[in-house]
Amino acid sequence: MDVFRIQGGARLVGEVHITGAKNSSLKLMAVALLAPGKTTIRAVPNILDVTIMAELLRRLGCSVSYSAETETVEIDVPATIEHRADYDLVRRMRASIAVLGPLVARTGAADVALPGGDAIGSRGLDMHTAGLERMGATVANEHGYLVVHAPDGGLVGTHVYLDFPSVGATETLLMAAVTANGVTVIDNAAREPEIVDICNMLLAMGAQIDGIGTSLLTITGVSSLRAVEHTTVADRIVAGTWAVAAVITGGDITVRNANSEHLSIALEKLVTAGAEVEITNDGFRVQMNKRPTAIDVVTLPYPGFPTDLQPQFIALNSIAEGSAMVTENLFEARFRFVQELTRLGAEVRTDGHHALIRGRSQLSGAPVEATDIRAGAGLVLAGLVADGETTVHAIDHIDRGYVDFEKQLSKLGANIIRETSPQLS
User: Fold this and answer.
1) Which residue of 101, 152, 362, 411 has the fewest CB atoms within a 10 Å radius of its CB?
2) Domain final position from 208, 231, 254
């Protein structure tokens, strides 16, 4: 099993280029199911999750090819597709649930295995299924599969109010609604840039959607959609990770091909921590020349502070001057990685959905294990500033969200290598 070995103490300096968002590209691949023909999606990161989603689409009957060199995926969707998403793939990646809406819309049925993925919380599917039921579908949980059938004549437009602005539920209902009969209103919809990206691709395919970027989406169903070419929105979480990397190492990193507006709160927090942030034409530059000041963080749905940057900011606070409170409002199990961070000497105490971090001037290297994608990134960042050697195990999690993470870190000056090692016991 691969691990990262990190020698702490390096200051990161240089440029990084951001590719398309993982949290968008996987869903765009699912969107392709809605239209027969060849769909081309650009700026698709070369990560494990893309490989898994490609195989899932193949088993549904599609022809899928991916070029790592051009970061382009081509999906040839037949006139008739299968409707069963197998357990062995879905269990490996929660984003597989994104095929639920398109399958019901295209075939009138879907058998989708209950998803797995990161161990960060329960993330139930109640809002997905309740919305589909309001559109006339029948939903059952049978033998580990979510079994959904549309009524005769197809799904019917309706008004759906989401109790919480769930990204996944918004995606499922949006993709189901674009070819439903009549008008569907999704109230309290998620507003993330990745949702906007999906909407923009659907518009190009011929969908009718009003209120894009707001919490009220109005979708007028159309009879059919067409295959298109689309470029994925830049990955704001990867961009934010590099911004934190600059601050935690006292470095100077220019982030290219990033939308700073998608990270406005996170970048403001880094300024509060003492960083200099310069907005550029194609991204931003983050410079730090002193020990950061501890900063409070409260995660909220977009445009609030993103939960996917919470572990990185806890790592930052662990070496900051002073104490800070981090409040996690989205995923109840996201503090699991704190146990690993304390192995590096961090002082973190958790109470429910709050974490109190007392900054230390120095962490100390130790073996740690990633529990999810962003926790893994946070542990790597902590290892960069720890004394001695840190080994990060279970880095397959990191590979699911970051392209050539260790290679990019090395180019910036980090002392990090990937090697095969026995799994941490």
Assistant:
1) 152
2) 231
